[in-house]
Amino acid sequence: MDPTFSKFIAQGQITVSNMILHHYVQLGLTNDEFILFLQISSSLQSGNDFPDLEMIAQRMGIKNTEVYDLVHQLLAKKVLTITPVSEQNGKQHDRYSFELLYRKLTALEEKSQKDEADHSVILEKEQVYNQIEEEFGHPLSPIEMETIDSWLKEDNYSPELIGAALREAVLSRAYSLKYMDKILLNWEKQNVKSAADVANLQTKRRQNFAGNKTENKKQGNQSKPKIPLYRWSDKPDK
């Protein structure tokens, strides 16, 4: 094996989350601060808890004072801490820690997910508005919008369930939110929460209707009086 390649392998690798790589600017780090983070992280992962800053300055090609300033900046931004670590022999040594940085990264990701969820809710609400306006043939009034918002936020009706209620109203030619509200309340009493539940409910109704129709037909046949057959050709003898 080539000696240079062997040395390259022996040096090991640093593991850095892509989330930090993609969001370090949003976390408030400059490019130089991020490079310093990589340098310190490399030492930490190699087992060196408190690397020599002068050595890091040489690697980064900057002055020692600049590295010290960068460390103070990371401490001030509360993404780097220096904590004492107890050894087995009772002695203590300092250790760099980026735990606060990882906490900020977690908070940033949670906020991003919340923002995406909020944006999705807004899009779904606008879609419900558009569907109802299209079927009703007129723009929604502020009061009608408040009613729909109440369905979504307070009653927790899903957009698909509201869409199913809209289809029922259109089929009944009842272009009214009050009619839709009655449908939704009726479904709520029957624990109907999705379009699939609506389909199951409609299937059961059709089956019950067909069963009742068959039963009524049987009962109707049974209630008819029996008429004796009489052949007019059989005339009584005189």
From TrEMBL:
Domain DnaD N-terminal: 16-115
Superkingdom of origin: Bacteria
Ranges of residues in domain DnaB/C C-terminal: 129-198
One Pfam family from the record: DnaD_N
Compositionally biased residues, Polar residues: 209-224
Bilayer-spanning residue ranges: none
InterPro entries: DnaB/C_C, DnaD, DnaD-like_sf, DnaD_N, WH-like_DNA-bd_sf
Stretches for region Disordered: 203-238
Similarity comment: Belongs to the DnaB/DnaD family.
Protein name as it appears in the record: DNA replication protein dnaD
Organism: Ligilactobacillus pobuzihii
Upper classification of the organism: Bacteria, Bacillati, Bacillota, Bacilli, Lactobacillales
